[in-house]
Amino acid sequence: MLALLAALALFRLGDVPLLGPDEPRYARVAAEMHRRGDWVTPTLQGRPWLEKPALYYWLAGAAFSVLGETEAAARLPSVLAALVMAGATALFGARLFGTAAGLQAGFVLATALLPFPYARAASMDMLVAAGITVCTGLVGLRVLGIAGPLAAAAAGAAAGLAVLAKGPLGLLLPLLVLVSFAAVRRDGAALKRGVTAGAVLAFLVVAAPWYGAILHAQGRAFVDVFLLDHNVARFTSTVHRHPGPPYYYLPILLIGLFPWTGLLAPALASLRWRAPRDLFVLCWLAAPLLFLSAAGSKLPGYVLPCLAPLALLLGRAAAASVAPAGPRLRAAGVAAAALAAAGGAGTLLLRARGDPAWLALVPLTGWTAVVAGAALWRSARDPGGTLAVLRVGGAGLLLLLAFAAPPVLEARESGRSLFVAAQGREVLAFGAWRTAWMAGYWYNDGRVREVGSLDAVAAEARGGSVLVLAGPAQQRELERAPGLRVRRLARGPRANVLLRVEALSASGA
Length: 509
Fold this sequence. Notes:
Layout: H1 2-10, H2 22-36, E1 43-44, E2 47-48, H3 55-67, H4 71-97, H5 99-111, H6 115-119, H7 125-143, H8 149-166, H9 169-185, H10 188-194, H11 197-218, H12 220-236, H13 249-256, H14 264-269, H15 276-294, H16 307-321, H17 330-352, H18 358-379, H19 383-413, E3 427-430, H20 434-437, H21 440-443, E4 448-451, H22 454-461, E5 466-470, H23 472-480, E6 484-491, E7 497-503
Parallel strand pairs: 3-4, 3-5
Antiparallel strand pairs: 1-2, 5-7, 6-7
């Protein structure tokens, strides 16, 4: 299972350019830390950048030491975190529900749709999800009496890593699970078994040194930027422009569990609400999901910590289905067929709109239809064969995504092509899409600077020709501006362009 996940996650890992505004920024911060050898203060273009903790930057820097500063190296920490998360989930499933259930739970995480892009992203989401999964699973084994006191200490260390990955959420979510389980069971002793002196000490040994060092180095600035703005404000408001309704994560989970979504019905039907193990897994799912759904800011990656308990329930249902009196898997085939039909409809819609991306979706749609048909055909007579179809179907879909995604994503979600013509010269970003110009953090070695007005561009151009990355409206503004000569060098996503701008007086006209 781990070998399959590693192969899928590593396949063409560096073929996709760094995407969006975040991947180039995070990779650039890691590169600057690695070059300076300063493992305390993250910087972006030489200035402190305090939005996220340091674990990702450390791991990416270590990968740069071995593989060089490449896209694959920048994404390697997430690959390793995905392996840890899937392996830990399989182990916890084996201890809670039996070896077969644990292995099936691991396959769910290894071949489901939602974890795959985050296992291949230069970001912190998979790191914090892995830390929370390990911490919560170990706490569960301890409070259920399956593991000894060392499990609580190990859980504290895992929580420390999760907090180093993304912040307080790495500790808060496992605590929410533990408190909710103790409250529902009316078992105050569960809190004492889960939160021990050894757990607290292990947490502090792992997390406190860096937090103490960054507080000493940056003081109130770290508190304001990291804690208040990027943690408290994200939960209490939509100031970071990622709103969503309370049910935001439900369709994401339903689609993201493909091709295993149909196992939800037998998984929920088999829940024994009063059984301590079932109750803990249910709290593991419900408490974080409710908390994240109540937050003001929502993104798909935030719900990754909820995948492990879902995989445990689905894994148990899958293992039980091969028993003579086990649940039938027709629902799995029906759900796969419904999602395949939805994918086909989406492909046709893109074609009707004239979007060239529909061509890349044709093999994906065809494959999901084949998988859905095979699963539906075998579900009534061969549960074991149905599970094999779902495993192969999920892995094949991810493989096809790795083939189809690079050109589509580069055309839509990367500004890499815009910086080829820059040849290392500084680029001014004037009204450009963040995804387009922030690619320069990585693809132009950080030589990109945002400016806010036409006057600022004109002032720079009076000192000689400048390169400007502009949005379509700003391009028209520059072309109409008197005293400026504008020539387009490259075109990128959303009609963003790289321009050479020079003042007519500077050019001798």
